[in-house]
Known about the structure:
Helices cover 18% and strands 19% of the residues. The chain is α+β, with helices and mostly antiparallel strands. It has a five-stranded antiparallel beta sheet with strand order 4-3-2-1-5. The protein is globular.
Amino acid sequence: MGMSILTRIGFIETEKQEQARLAQAPVGSTSHYLSTLPITITEWPQDLIVQLPWDPPRTPRSYTVVVVPLTFQPDPVPVDLDEEPLPRKLNPGSWGCAVVASDHPRFPVGGHRIVVGADEIARGTKVSIQSPRPEHRTAADASPS
């Protein structure tokens, strides 16, 4: 991942700075777990299909939870600050996501929505779905034998 100009000038934190910030969270927390994972999705994730990194110790066992991030919600700026301190978070905010595949009992498919932190989405795995190619039928195939 190339470093953007905003990262080079210190306006946005680097991946290492984000990992260090997340690692300050208590051991066993989602944030601390995420600090151990590399960023795998660097593009704007809206409408992508993303498998979340739900493996121990994030969850008691591995689960497959696949979401589509739909709506972005920025982090609120603290009331006592006029603006966010620098460097700004690399993956701020959260996403309202539709669950499109899941074997987790609390997060079923079928209209279920969850809110996922942008830092967790960035550490997920982008899923690609290949649409089946329609068979080419000829007139001879369509005629009864």
